[in-house]
Recover the amino acids of this structure.
């Protein structure tokens, strides 16, 4: 009886040990970006549209500053959004409070020019529009326009999930992921979800970051207020990013002691 018990225990022990080795670690092919799928995959150049043609919508906030030769004109025109002008804007909140909010009609109220229709214009087009209107009042001036509310949100299997503010004209998916500390080892890189707001509602897009052709995807560059969700790999709760050698060796030592006990 004791011999049979020892044989069953030994058999069960080896089954469990092999199962741990085969299923506990995340395969390398699931954590690599832009993989080469086969030898024929030799493409190294990809075309994509880097320019972000975001169209201004009601509720957006625009930071607008006018630089001219006359200091009094600067103070008057740069009382942004009705707030007290300051050349030293030190926080996101101050930029927001001193910006122009686009009304439900798609307009902003700007000094001298009055009401300016900006809905469905790009930031560059808003700049040109205000510049042309100011030419009737100022001979030499430079208009600076920035979109204040360029935020992106990263959720799921990223190391630092949260909302991030972008202080540049565009950002691609890899740059956004790097801001959040990269994806975790349990991230499902082959099925990353981008939630994008459109005039008709929300649009859900799925992209595969393990393929090189993501570089030519129309969704490679993110737009303001995009939400990036990275789902976990199937069976995450049973996997390890790195193999738990200490735990396995402790279990192995215990098992060997039990085997020795039953054998004797």
């Amino acid at each position: 009886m004791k011999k049979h018990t020892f044989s069953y225990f030994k058999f069960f022990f080896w089954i469990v040990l092999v199962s741990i080795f085969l299923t506990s670690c995340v395969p390398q092919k699931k954590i690599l970006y832009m993989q080469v799928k086969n030898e024929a995959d030799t493409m190294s150049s990809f075309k994509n549209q880097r320019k972000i043609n975001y169209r201004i919508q009601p509720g957006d906030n625009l930071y607008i500053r006018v630089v001219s030769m006359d200091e009094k004109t600067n103070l008057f025109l740069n009382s942004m959004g009705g707030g007290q002008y300051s050349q030293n804007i030190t926080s996101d909140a101050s930029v927001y409070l001193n910006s122009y909010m686009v009304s439900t009609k798609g307009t902003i109220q700007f000094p001298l020019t009055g009401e300016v229709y900006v809905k469905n214009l790009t930031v560059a087009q808003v700049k040109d529009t205000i510049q042309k209107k100011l030419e009737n009042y100022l001979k030499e001036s430079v208009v600076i326009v920035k979109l204040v509310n360029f935020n992106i949100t990263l959720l799921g299997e990223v190391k630092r999930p949260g909302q991030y503010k972008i202080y540049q004209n565009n950002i691609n998916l890899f740059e956004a992921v790097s801001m959040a500390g990269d994806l975790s080892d349990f991230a499902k890189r082959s099925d990353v979800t981008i939630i994008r707001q459109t005039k008709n509602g929300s649009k859900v897009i799925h992209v595969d970051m393990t393929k090189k052709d993501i570089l030519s995807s129309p969704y490679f560059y993110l737009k303001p207020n995009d939400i990036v969700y990275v789902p976990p790999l199937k069976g995450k709760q049973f996997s390890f990013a790195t193999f738990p050698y200490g735990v396995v060796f402790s279990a192995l030592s215990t098992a060997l002691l039990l085997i020795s006990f039953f054998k004797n």
